[in-house]
Amino acid sequence: MKKSQFTPEELQGMPQLEAVVDELCAPESYEAVYHQSLHGAPMPSTEALAEVVERLKAALFPGYYGPARVVLQSMRYHLSANLDSIYRLLSEQIRRGGCFICAEFANDCTSCERYSHETAMRFLQRLPEIRRVLATDVRAAFEGDPAAKSPGETIFCYPSITAMIHHRIAHELYRLDVPIIPRIISEMAHSKTGIDIHPGAQIGEEFFIDHGTGVVVGETCIIGRGCRLYQGVTLGALSFPKDGDGKLVKGTPRHPILEDNVTVYAGATVLGRITIGTGTIIGGNVWVTHDVPAGSKLAQARSSVAESSDKMVANGRR
């Protein structure tokens, strides 16, 4: 039955809710957090990018990801269909990423569509090289961990391989000057594995992160071939220079260079644009802010047995 009369309270609406809406619609409330692209293009889709990454994993590691069973006789057809989907999905996300920043992505909006498709194709052309390098990462994980029973176990289970699949993909997109998409793909791996690698970091072949959780690799890091990190390692910046207006100067080299075959053990912190020479071993929880010659071994001072008269120290406080 249709209601013919309303109570005074119903006619007044919800003044408390209206007050909240008024505050949230005030320019001083939203202007620092509101985004609208100049031409109304939607934001990049994290769901679509997750699908792109899963399809890329199936293309790079057939049989491990994607269809549960892939036979060699039909692999070509599976791969062709998968790459076609990746190309279309990735082109759209690159276009959205370009619209997110708009300026400096393409000459004008009429070229944005074409530029996105061309960039997606250039990325796909890099897939054979990405697979080749990832295969060296898998070999490093298997040969470097006595607990690994097979290379396949590292592909399917190890956080280091998950992080490096995302990073090798994101880094190629970063090299192609694709806006924001590489960072989204890197953060997907970060949330899954606890390994935080900026897509700008240059990492050589045969790279392995044992255990992984808590590792941080900064944007301008350069890591040579055959390097190995353990959990909790930070390769970071020592300082953040500012310009005359007090704003951070961005894009300058500020993270470490690790030459070939460097090992950094758990909890170590290496900061600044310093060079760690070939074959160096940095012990656990060591703090390094200076260049290190090749072949060095850095370790903390050995612990000693306390005398019976010494007071114990707990949590840094007596």
Automatic annotation (TrEMBL):
Keyword annotations of the record: Acyltransferase, Amino-acid biosynthesis, Transferase
GO terms assigned for molecular function: acyltransferase activity
Stored InterPro entries: LbH_SAT, Ser_AcTrfase_N_sf, Serine_acetyltransferase, Trimer_LpxA-like_sf
One GO term (biological process): amino acid biosynthetic process
PANTHER family hit by this protein: SERINE ACETYLTRANSFERASE
Cross-referenced NCBIfam families: EPS_EpsC (NF041874)
Name of the protein in its database record: Serine acetyltransferase
Organism: Desulfovibrio psychrotolerans
Lineage summary: Bacteria, Pseudomonadati, Thermodesulfobacteriota, Desulfovibrionia, Desulfovibrionales
